[in-house]
Design goal:
alpha/beta; TIM Barrel; nine-stranded parallel sheet; 12 helices; 41% helix
């Protein structure tokens, strides 16, 4: 590792082998990595914190067996379940997101997919059209499962600008770490279809599920090859009743190191801190934004609550003042 000049990554692309080598840094070199990642963020992304608010628009009863997820019907997690929220409820949440300062509003549903021809798909399109007509300064995003090119095109025509579908982990480790009821190739094909019709794509994963460092680097380079626009990094918050329910939390240095390496790999993309920010990073949350992160989910997640909007935007204001 001593032969690698970490500062050289400010002005050149990092190779897979070099990224894997960075996972071994510690001590002073780790602090240097954080500083370099922050400098890369400023140079290629500027000093803006990107924000996104999501709605858990349809909860629970999911037929997939993702090992981290409280909404899977395969596990007993006592999660609240409900059908698709009404258009009126979703519009209220969308309008609130703008008032509170979010730049994106994401509609998220449980299940393998919301397919064309179903009432839910039709209702989502009606919400999108109505939301778009209000001309708010909030981009519309969807995370409604594994879709075809035609289905994605209809969503785009209805007002969606970005589609979300996390890979979660590496191609090689997907079946053992994440799920067996579908393949990671299904997610990749949806991402390719979305990019192919001109949608932006948000795709990242969850760290702390027992994956190796190589799994994390593999996932990063798969995402880079796919040309995704935003990379959410979620930190596993183990949920009782799921196969990952008894895992220990990752250490602070491992979380921050992951964020920093991802910034070196994704020089000009939005790296967004999602689940686990409040409960696991806690007082180290600010350090994530000095280690390469430049985005965050605000106002809560799917089945776990975050901090309230006011606290989130107080943090954002503090970060941006620190960056100036």
């Amino acid at each position: 590792m001593n032969k690698i000049n970490i500062r050289s990554f400010i002005d050149r692309e990092i190779t897979f082998e070099e990224a894997l080598a960075l996972t071994e840094v510690k001590g002073f070199q780790l602090i240097e990595l954080f500083a370099v990642a922050n400098e890369i963020r400023e140079k290629y992304c500027g000093n803006k914190v990107h924000t996104c608010t999501i709605s858990n628009a349809k909860s629970g009863k999911c037929e997939e067996n993702c090992k981290f997820c409280a909404q899977s019907a395969h596990y007993n997690t006592n999660v609240t379940t409900y059908d698709l929220k009404t258009k009126e409820n979703l519009l209220e949440e969308y309008i609130k997101a703008e008032k509170l300062g979010s730049s994106k509003f994401g509609l998220v549903t449980s299940g393998r997919s919301i397919k064309k021809g179903t009432k839910d798909y039709s209702d989502i399109k009606k919400f999108l059209v109505d939301a778009k007509s209000k001309k708010k300064n909030v981009d519309l995003c969807c995370s409604i499962g594994l879709l075809s090119k035609d289905e994605l095109l209809e969503l785009k025509e209805s007002g969606v600008t970005r589609f979300h579908s996390n890979l979660q982990t590496s191609i090689e480790g997907y079946e053992s770490i994440v799920a067996t009821t579908h393949k990671i190739d299904d997610r990749i094909e949806t991402i390719k279809a979305a990019k192919g019709i001109g949608l932006e794509v948000c795709s990242g994963g969850i760290i702390g599920m027992g994956e190796s460092w190589k799994d994390r680097i593999d996932m990063a380079y798969t995402l880079k090859k796919l040309g995704v626009d935003g990379i959410p990094i979620n930190i596993l918050n183990p949920i009782s009743g799921t196969p990952h329910g008894e895992r220990e939390h990752l250490s602070m240095d491992e979380i921050l190191k992951t964020i920093a390496i991802y910034r070196v790999i994704f020089r000009d993309k939005v790296i967004k801190i999602g689940a686990g920010r409040e409960s696991i990073l806690k007082d180290f949350t600010g350090m994530a934004f000095l280690s390469g992160a430049n985005g965050m989910l605000v106002g809560g997640y799917l089945t776990t609550k975050g901090r309230n909007f006011e606290e989130d935007f107080k943090l954002i204001n503090s970060i941006q003042k620190l960056w100036e």
